[in-house]
Specification:
By secondary structure, this protein is of the alpha/beta class. Helix content is about 25%, strand content about 25%. The chain contains seven helices and 15 strands. The strands form three sheets. A seven-stranded mixed β-sheet has the order 5-2-1-6-7-8-9, sandwiched between helices. Strand 10 and strand 11 form a beta hairpin.
């Protein structure tokens, strides 16, 4: 089947590679090159790089406007497939492919409609993560669902690791749905249940509240790692928490109280402490948490969140 594929981040690459091996990809639509790193070097998106490796035509568009719509329409695709492109598909583009557009979304719809489903699910402490393939409609992530899959994610996995696992399973799920659409056996059903929303994360979402129980603090750490990044303040300075895990073998500390062991910093929560092994103080590089703590001039009375 002749497809047009739209996506931008690395999470979309497994699906692109899978579909390119099975169907005719008329073009790959992705966001324009973005400045990355300290030197702000213009860098193609992961999807653009993968498309180039596969020898596929690439359309770079910041939004799916009239120009992008005309370019896609000229290709006469039968189906559009979108995975985390980073922009909305509106009419007339929505109806341009003969069979419309389908979307791989990294949640068990109608849970977590929006830009950050994996992150929001982890922050909420959801027991299950999953992927859904649905028919794209004008309303946000509200179309009929062709297929869903619960995906096993390692306990304690942060958002990047969880998304990597979901991307692999999601590629297979999308392949199955596209195949069923091609042979006429696909069947989509309306979403059932109360929707929840997953808006894009902001820097404020990464702030750890040490008064909360450990389970909630660690859930937020998982959901905001690596972006926008978990952080706290110590002596008025912002400190990113890069690596952490629950601690169950240490006496309780007051919320925000810090105790150093040989291998980690223990920070008190509303229940048991969080063990922090790697941090990044403002204006500095990533470093061992204990080494950073020992480098402070005076740690007496210093607390996280203060």
């Amino acid at each position: 089947m002749r497809l047009v594929f739209a996506g931008t981040p690395s999470a979309a690459v497994p699906t692109l590679r899978r579909l390119a091996a099975e169907h005719d990809i008329a073009a790959v639509v992705t966001r324009p090159d973005a400045p990355l790193g300290r030197k702000r070097v213009l860098t193609p998106s992961p999807v653009a790089q993968a498309a180039a490796d596969l020898g596929l035509p690439i359309i770079k568009a910041a939004r799916l406007d009239d120009e992008a719509t005309a370019a896609i329409a000229a290709l006469q695709p039968e189906l559009g497939v979108i995975v985390a492109y980073g922009g909305l598909v509106r009419e007339p583009l929505l109806s341009t492919p003969v069979k419309g557009w389908i979307n791989l979304h990294f949640s068990l719809l109608p849970q977590w409609r929006g830009a950050a489903p994996v992150q929001r699910a982890l922050i909420a402490g959801d027991a299950q993560l999953g992927a859904s393939v649905f028919q794209l409609v004008p309303a946000l992530d509200a179309g009929d669902v062709f297929a869903t899959r619960v995906v096993d994610v390692a306990p304690g996995a942060t958002a990047d690791a969880a998304l990597e696992a979901l991307a692999i399973d999601g590629a297979q799920l999308t392949s199955e749905v596209v195949g069923a659409i091609a042979d006429g056996t696909a069947h989509a059903v309306p979403q059932h249940g109360e929707p929840s929303l997953a808006p894009k994360l902001t820097l404020d979402d990464g702030l750890l509240d040490w008064s909360q129980p450990l389970a909630q603090v660690f859930a937020r750490f998982r959901g905001v790692t690596p972006e926008p990044g978990a952080h706290t303040t110590v002596d008025g300075l912002r400190v990113k928490v890069l690596e952490a895990a629950p601690s169950s073998d240490h006496a309780a500390l007051e919320p925000g109280e810090i105790a150093a062991t040989k291998t980690a910093l223990l920070i008190g929560t509303g229940s048991t402490p969080l063990s922090v092994t790697r941090v990044q103080p403002a204006g500095k590089g990533a470093m061992n948490a204990v080494d950073w703590w020992r480098g402070q001039r005076d740690t007496d009375g210093l607390r996280a969140g203060a």
